[in-house]
Every structure is written in structure tokens, then in C-alpha cells.
Amino acid sequence: MEIVLKEKIKEAVKIIYNSEVKDDLIQIQETRKDFKGDFTLVVFPLLRFSKNTPEKTGETIGQYLKDNFTAVSGFNVIKGFLNLEISDAWWVEYFKKIAAEKTHLENCKVSHPETILVEYSSPNTNKPLHLGHIRNNLLGFSLYRILSGCGHRVIKTNIVNDRGIHICKSMLAWQKFGNGETPESSGMKGDHLVGKYYVLFEKNYKEQVEKLIQNGIDATEAKNSATLMKETREMLLKWETGDEEIVSLWKMMNSWVYVGFDETYKKLGVDFDKIYYESDTYKVGKDIVLRALKEKILYRNEDNSVWADLTPDGLDQKLLLRSDGTAVYMTQDLGTAVDRYKEFNFDKNIYVVGNEQNYHFQVLKALLKRIGYNWADGLIHFSYGMVELPEGRMKSREGTIVDADDLIKEMQLTAMEVSLELGKLSDFSDEEKEDIFRKIGMGALKYYILKVDPRKNMTFNPAESIDFNGNTGPFIQYTYTRIKSVFRKAEHLGINTGQISFSGTKTGPKEIELIKLLRKFSETVSAAATSYSPALIANYCYDLSREYNQFYHDFSILGEAEEEIRNFRMVLSKVTSEIIYTGMWLLGIEMPERM
RNA sequence: GGUUCCGUAGCUCAGUUGGAUAGAGCAACAGCCUUCUAAGCUGUGGGUCGCGCGUUCGAGCCGCGCCGGAAUCACCA
Predict the structure, then answer these.
(1) Are residue A521 and residue A413 in the same domain, yes or no?
(2) What span, in angstroms and rounded, lies between the C-alpha atoms of A431 and A540?
(3) What is the complex's ipTM, to 2 decimals?
């Protein structure tokens, strides 16, 4: 509509003022709720052509549009704003098109689909997933749904940081203090068990360091020379040389972790098309580094460590191989990127990684380009903000880490309590109830996290828990189930709910408001795809739900005596439910049929 | 100190390429269930958009300078 209006306005200016107008001078926006009208033309930029007051110019153009464009049924001018009223008939015609859509994502399809890798989750195998990972997983998965919804070929990948010094820490602690404990023997989830040994390592290591410092040794020196650290480094070296005992220990402990992760992923409803393991890719990275070293792109330090000098790019020196020859994080990320490009020839490779690693990705990109990989332009760091607690950042030392499994469980329990209190599900089987509690609890959690602009840090208050009223997932789910309920009743009454025909000649302002909002769905999804922001869709779903709830409250649907009006309201409700469903689907949020 | 990001109601957050009187929810208070689900709807109060200057017909949004906060600048990942 805006496009057509623009053309008409250009035409108007040409005929009335005999001037050609550039597109960007014609600013059309939706009319604010406080004024009468649907679209508003900002006339200030056109004064140079009219050489007249804003009011007079608005009047003149408005009159022209009303006379020459049937969709415009009226207008008013306030200050420099020309408010155009669009006829109900036009809106209804528009709505008919939306109602006929098969998926509601048709208009979002891009003209040139790309191959896009989305890397998300990226856990370390030394501890279980926490709240930060939840944000990561939800963002990554939603991004996948949104981009593929827009027609891109999207590959979900995960890089598992399954090697490195931190992994050796939990291995060493288990070797020393574990007494052969396994997930079976302890009844602990595998990732939590391994995490327990990581914590144990840190505790003992800290004690050693403190003892050394008390004996008068300098702090950095103490950290380096503590027996546990020395042993860990030896272990890493052994691991890199393929020591059988270490490798089999590593395999065993990692396998425990994977079982645990899979369980959490399943509960979160996320999955992957291809999983990379750092233990595979770090070698590729090492080769790349050594080759680049030969080509003098990198340099070797006196102590045998290998570095890149990125000062010409405005960055620093970056270590790529330690003096003992082992690889660091950056080394393997080089390998992973190259591997992926070889395999998928991607247009974009999106890394869903926290903003604490902004520098890392700047370096990664610069480094790849330096080595000669021009496709590195397609690397995108989708940098999201940290999740903080009311008292600040989560700290393992202070035991304030919010565990993913615990949180999920808690959300579902809360959903259960609230549901039981409201007592609307008494005629359901336990199994069905469980399913509904799960959907509501996860819906609340997911929405809570996804509604926030991903780039921003967000605060999570576990004490207040997550609300189920207002701008929340359950509110949107509730709206959806209300519509479902209407249709159940309609069927019960023997009203045909399949093909509902309507002409829409009798519509009220509330219905038109809803149509306007429904119309904005595809542009919202497109915006979410280009700006990588599921939050746009979340907030849209909320706006739509709120608008529908008002409509639902003010008007009876099935109780409407006039069939013409009733049918129109039914279709309006149906399309609303479809769009809410689709929007929430893009966020990875499941919808219950009743709640 | 360098770089990057963030400062909007008591709290959590929205706010399109700069447009009209800055919006929601939570919390507080006051109403609305004989009806398709009250996890809802309606109303009231609540703001120096961190501060200042500049660009502009017009700035929460753009530029510069401060103030406050976060991240990062590891032979950690």
C-alpha cells in the first residue's frame, strides 16, 4: 500500500506542482493512534515544491488523492502531517489475500537465497550448560528458523570445545579424586558429573597456589608452578601426542557429557545438522598456521611460539601456537572456518557467540583474510549480550551460576502450579497435562529471553521467577488457545469451520486495527532476518495478541447473530491464530491447544 | 590506558531509514466473569529518554565532548 501511495503522491506532485520528486522525500508512515487516518504523509520535505504552507500543501495533495485514488476515502491535515484514511473495503480486500496464504511466510522469501551456516551452542565439555547457553541456544535456533523461513538454505552447526587445557583439568581431577565414579554409579547426569570434577580441580588448584604464595612465591609464578597446573599441561601434551591412556579417559568422560547435553538440547527443543569437534579441527588449524608461517605471514618467537602481527589491522599481536607447539582456541577456529568453507561453500557463516568474544572474531576475520581467504567477508559474529543476575554477573566461584537443567525444571514446575491453581485442565490425562505444563513453562522461559534485543545485556531475576501474565509467552499462548477454543465450540455447534466465506462489508474499527497488524507480519519477519533479531517477532506476537484480546473481549464471535459478521470474525480469528502460531514457531516456541 | 557496546517510568523491556503529545508489562490503586477460557479486559498515578553542545523545519534516534556501567586487550576458552 505504501508503495502505491508513494506513486500516487509522486503523480500528484507532478501534476499539481509540475515537479519530479525523489522517492526518499516521500515519507509515509502509519498514522498514530491519536489521530484519524491510516497512513500519514509527512509534508515538510515537499514544501520546496509547493512553495506554500504545510497545511495548504497537505490539503492540496490530500484532495488530489481522494479524487483520484479510490482506496483513499478521506483525509485530514494536522500541522505538517497529511493523514490519509483508507477505505474499509480496501482493508478487507487486503485481508482476503492474507487469509488465502498457505504459510504466511510467502512474502518473506528472499529473491536470492543464500547458503548460511549458523553456529550456536558451542559448549565446553568440562561443565554443564547454564543460563548463558540457554540464551545462545534459543537465539541460534530461532535464527535458523527465521532465516530458513525466508528461503535461505541454513545449516545448523555446533562446535564442541572438547579439547584443551580446561578439559584436562576435569580429567586430571577425576583421575586423582574420582575413585572410578561414573554417571551410573553416582546417578548423576554425565555433564554434571564432569562439571563436579572441574570445580574440584579449581578448588584444589587454588589451595595449592595460595600455599605457594604464602611461601613467598610471586602470584603469577605460583599459578604456573603449582603441581596441578604442571600436571594438566603435561596431560594436554600427552593428549596431543595421542597417549592411549589419556585419550581413552578423554573419550570416556566426553561420552558422559554428550549424553547429558543431548538431554538438555532435547528439552530446549534445539538440534544440529552438523557437529564439529575441536579435537578434529585444531589440527587443520595447526596446518594452516604452519603453512602461513612458511609464507612469512606469521612469525616465530624466540621461545618457539607462533604469532600473527595484526597491528596493521589496528589489532594486536596474536598467539597461535604455544611454545610447546600446542594449539589455542584461535588456532582451531581457523581450522573450523576453513573446513566449513570447503564443505559448504557458504555465503555466510554466522557465529552465535557472546559479546565478550567480539575481539576474538575481529581477529579471526582479519587473520583469515591475511592468510588469503577472501570468503572471510562472509563471517558474521552474531554478538549477543550477557545474561546477568540482579546482583551482577554469574560467577562460578560464588556459586551463582543458573544451571540450565535446574531452570527448565523450575519453569515447568511453576507452570504446573499456576495451571493447577487455575484448574482448567481437570479433564485431561496426566500425560496430556505434563505436555501442556512443558509447553507453557518452556514458552515462558523462551519468550522471556527472546523478547529482549539480542545485542543487549539482560537481567534475569530468578527470585521473582518468570511471570505468566502481561508481556509473556503464556499470554500469547493463552490468546492462541482462546481462538482454538472458539473453533472447538463452533464445531460443537455444527458451524462449518473449514471454508468460511465472507464479504466483509460490515466491519468495525477494531477489526480494521487487527487487519493492519496482521499485515505487518511478513515485514516483521523480514526485518528479523536482516537484522538478526528474533526479538522483533516476539514483540510483534505480543502486540498482535494484545490487540486480539481486546477484540475478543469487546465482541462476541459465535454469539453474533448476523452470519456475515460472524463469519468475518471467525476468519479474522483463524488468521490471527495462524500468524501467532507461525511467529512463535519462528521463535521455537510450541503452542498448546488448551491451557 | 586503547578498542567495542550499553544508559528510556520504582523494576524488566519496546520505540522502524530522524517526524505529531516517548510506549508496554510488572509492582500500586480502582473497576469488569449467568457469555467463545478472567493466564483476560478497562481505568488512575508514574519520565530532565545519563548530562551538555551541535546538525535539522523537526533529535530518544545522527555528530562531538563529558558522566556512569559492561566487555575485551591471556602461552584461558
Answers:
(1) yes
(2) 32
(3) 0.95
Number of structural domains chain A divides into: 3
Of A86, A119, A151, the residue that ends a domain is A86
Q: Is A205 inside any structural domain?
A: yes
**Which of A242, A270, A298 is the endpoint of a domain?**
A270
Closest CA to A376 of A361, A360, A357: A361
User: What's the CATH number where A75 sits?
Assistant: 3.30.1360.70
Owning domain of residue A216: 163-270
How far: A444 CA to B20 C1' (Å)? 36
pLDDT digit string (tens) for chain A, length 595 residues: 778 898 899 899 999 998 888 888 889 999 988 888 999 999 998 988 888 888 999 999 999 999 999 999 999 999 889 999 999 999 999 999 999 999 999 999 999 999 999 999 999 999 999 999 999 999 999 999 999 999 999 999 999 999 988 899 999 999 999 999 999 999 999 999 999 999 999 889 989 988 988 888 888 788 888 999 999 999 999 998 999 999 999 999 999 999 999 999 999 999 999 999 999 999 999 999 999 999 999 999 999 999 999 888 878 889 999 998 888 889 999 999 999 999 999 999 999 999 999 999 999 999 999 999 999 999 999 999 999 988 888 887 778 899 999 999 999 999 999 999 998 888 899 999 999 999 999 999 999 999 999 999 999 987 776 889 999 999 999 999 999 999 999 999 988 888 788 877 778 888 999 999 999 999 999 999 999 999 999 999 999 999 999 999 999 999 998 888 999 999 999 999 999 999 999 999 999 999 9
Q: Which of residues 131-160 of A touch strand B (CB under 7 A)?
A: none
In a 3-state reduction of DSSP, which class is residue A382? strand
For strand B, list residues 188-247 of chain A whose Cβ lies within 7 Å of it. Answer: none
A365 sits within 7 Å of strand B by its CB? no
- Helix H or strand E segment including A500: none
Burial code of A126-161, b = ≥16 C-beta within 10 A, e = fewer? bbbbbbbbbbbbbbbbbbbbbbbbbbbebbbbbbbb
On whether both A444 and A567 belong to a single domain, the answer is yes
Whole-angstrom CA distances from A404 to A164, A242, A268, A298, A382 are 23, 33, 9, 41, 22
Do the Cβ atoms of A567 and A502 come closer than 8 Å? yes
Q: Cα(A494)–Cα(A488) distance, rounded to whole angstroms?
A: 10
> Is A320 inside a domain boundary?
no
The CATH number covering residue A531 comes to 1.10.730.10
Answer yes or no: do A440 and A540 share one domain: yes
Query: A251 lies in a domain?
Result: yes
> Does residue A189 share a domain with residue A66?
no
Closest alpha carbon to C1' of B19, residue: A42
* Strand B atom within 7 Å of A458 CB: yes
In a domain, A323, yes or no: no
